[in-house]
Amino acid sequence: MYKKISEPIEVMAVFKRDKVEPVLFKWNGRQYKVDHVNLVHTERLGREKFFIFSVSDAVNAFRLRFSTESLKWTLEETAML
């Protein structure tokens, strides 16, 4: 079951050709390594565009949001075991 978080996070990402991919993020004093990017899609709110990443590590799933306007990352949801 997913839990709504909506907290800012620090993300290390790589930019490959025409896409961005999160590889590591810090949240709540812990560091999480992204093992899989399971799904990527975009959303718009007015002129602001967001990239939404559904990612997972060895045991947990997360939903990360990247704002192209502010260049900030947010942890939207988590499913932690």
Beta-strand residue fraction: over 45%
Largest sheet: 7 strands, antiparallel
Care to count the β-strands? 7
Unreliable runs: none
Order of strands, widest sheet: 3-2-1-7-6-5-4
User: Which whole number gives the mean pLDDT?
Assistant: 95
Radius of gyration over alpha carbons? 12 Å
Name the features.
81 residues, mainly beta, seven-stranded antiparallel β-sheet, 7 strands, 0% helix, 74% strand
Question: In words, what does this structure look like?
Answer:
The protein is mainly β and 81 residues long. The chain has one domain (3-79). It has strands at 3-16, 19-27, 30-33, 36-45, 48-56, 61-67, 73-79. It has a seven-stranded antiparallel β-sheet, with no helix packed on it. A hairpin with a 5-residue loop joins strand 6 and strand 7 (73-79). It is globular. The termini are close together.
What topology emerges from the helices and strands here?
Blueprint: E1 3-16, E2 19-27, E3 30-33, E4 36-45, E5 48-56, E6 61-67, E7 73-79
Antiparallel strand pairs: 1-2, 1-7, 2-3, 4-5, 5-6, 6-7
